[in-house]
Structure formats: C-alpha cells, structure tokens
UniProtKB/TrEMBL annotation:
Protein name, entry field: SRPBCC domain-containing protein
The organism's place on the tree of life at top rank: Bacteria
Domain Activator of Hsp90 ATPase homologue 1/2-like C-terminal: from-to ranges: 19-155
Similarity comment: family membership: Belongs to the AHA1 family.
InterPro entries: ASHA1/2-like_C (IPR013538), START-like_dom_sf (IPR023393)
Organism: Sphingomonas citri
Length: 157
C-alpha cells in the first residue's frame, strides 16, 4: 500500500467449472451452499452469515480471525447489498469490509455465469477502494482466487 489516502484496485478472474450453470448459480445464491465455500474456513471462526438473496437484500459475514493469522481474535465484518440478480446469469453486490469496526474497503463485485460446452464459465469482476491499513488489491485478488478454488471443489463433489 502507498501513503495515499485510498488505493483503487480492479481485477477479473475467469473460471471454468464442469458443472451445469444452474448448479453454479445455486452455489452463489443459496445461503446454505454459499456459506460452505464463501464463509467457512479453518482460518477463522464464523460468528454470523446471513444472506437475503434478492435485489435490495443484504448479506453479512462476521468472523473472528484464528490464532495462526495476522490478527488473532480480531473481528472481520463484510456487509453487502444485492443490486442486480439475473437468475442463472448474473449477481451484482456492493460491500463494505471492516476489521475491528474500522472500515478497510468498499467494493462492487459482479459474478457472471455462462454455459459453455461441458460446463460453466464464471467471471468474477472486482472493483474496489482500499483505505489505510487495508489488505490491498493484490491480497484481495488472492482471497477471491482462494474462494473460487473452494467453489470449484464444492462443485466437483
């Protein structure tokens, strides 16, 4: 991170999953399925994950960092609002992330799903602004790569 007040970062990640588009979309839309790849992890303890999957609905993830992380015991909160949902094709959500109550970023995230021979192409586009003391664009991109890897493992089961 630089010394400027904010840093902007954008990235796009493309993934192919050998699963039907409906299954991929459901994994992003159904709160109980999404929780398993998006929220649950060995590196933290989930305090809450709630998702009201509809335009205008909210999503909230709160967890405590685990003992082997840079912030053991510290709370992370990610709160979002769904702005656009096209069944089976697209999800757009804006979100605000905070650590220990201090905002670290605001983002616009777009998930696009398209049928291709033998499966589904998923495109994740992230547009964000990162505040002082945040993880920054490179670490957030790595985080999304990890999440989409987890989604792929879930879809393979």
């Amino acid at each position: 991170m630089t010394n400027s007040a904010v840093v902007h970062g954008n990235f796009t990640i493309d993934r192919f999953y050998p699963a039907a588009p409906a299954k991929v979309f459901a994994a992003c839309a159904d709160p109980s399925i999404k929780k398993s790849w998006y929220a649950e992890s060995d590196t933290h303890e989930i305090k809450a994950f709630d998702s009201d999957f509809r335009v205008g609905g909210t999503e909230r993830l709160t967890y405590l960092f685990g003992p082997d992380t840079p912030f053991p015991g510290v709370e992370l909160t990610n709160e979002g609002v769904f702005h656009d949902i096209v069944d089976g094709q697209r999800i757009i959500i804006s979100s605000r992330m905070a650590i220990a109550g201090r905002p670290i970023s605001v983002a616009l995230e777009t998930i696009e799903i398209a049928e291709v021979d033998g499966g589904t192409d998923l495109t994740c586009t992230f547009q964000g602004v990162f505040f002082e003391g945040s993880d920054g664009p490179a670490m957030r991109e790595q985080g999304w790569n990890d999440l989409l890897d987890r989604l792929g493992r879930l879809l393979a089961d």
